[in-house]
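Risk register update: the risk of archive-format incompatibility is retired. Evidence:
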Amino acid sequence: MSYREQGVKRKAPEGRAAMACPSRFVDARAARFIRYQEPSGRRFRLHAAQRSFLPRPRLRNMPSIQSPHNPRVKRAVKLRDRRQRSRQGRFLIDGARELLRAWEAGVAMEEVFVCGEYCRTTDALEVLARLDAEAPQIRFDVPEAVLEKIAFGERNEGLVAVAITPSVQLADLPPAASAAIVVLEGVEKPGNLGAVARTADATGMSALVVTGDGATDLYNPNAIRASLGTLFALPVCAATAEETIAWLRRHNIAMFAARVEGSVAYTAADFRQPCAIVLGSEAKGLSPAWQGPDVTAIRLPMLGVADSLNVSVTAAVLCYELLRQRDGAPADGEQTV
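Archived output:
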């Protein structure tokens, strides 16, 4: 494919510029500037220092897919379904920022589908630069119709990746000395899972554990999107409630279960010790498994007619209280248990 067909315009260099200019991008006036035009017609004139943010022209041996019936596309489309994600051991990452954070976390990727005309954000251009520099063999250029078939949400940033599902077990979680763990039981909405992951990352929690039958899977594309890719920034794993409780007890990690009828105000809980904050779904709350002499039931004040908050809001309140306590001593006159 010629440079003109790819939307990159070349202009014959003159004088010394002919020796100084890079072969891919040429400016008639000075080698330190480059011109780039997207296939859509949008033009850029950038300093050479910004060249790393530009997508490289697609080489002749770089694969492209034109048909939505291609086997790779069909397998990727199936990953929209939870059963297929579990069966294939793979999942979708839809979005440039999310893809970058997965890349930085070392998530193994098998394929990245690229629709160049939509790759306009700084994050998207950085993904393209990394792809071409580090893993050009997994890049597949596709037209808009193919990308729309694979993409999970409404936002189209021109990038959808297929990645290998990370295998993280309870035994892989950080040491208990400074443990600050969020446990979610039975949370069905992926948006809530993503929002809690985002809060856990913002407050420096050490891990996120998902338990319960019917809970959303960790790598639901909507959960990844809602988390802004922070699901890749902290250790996350799935386990049963029984396995999680046994692991917490074995490591002497205190358990604080958020309940409407909790006997202890959340501000009186001692989050400075290694601990886990346990949250249930709004509809069902926590199961009886989270009751016992070593589980402290904590509550948030509810002064209106509502008897509960969204689980992601409750998580934010409790995680920031933990952060407040660990950053400094309790407020004057405050007692903790």
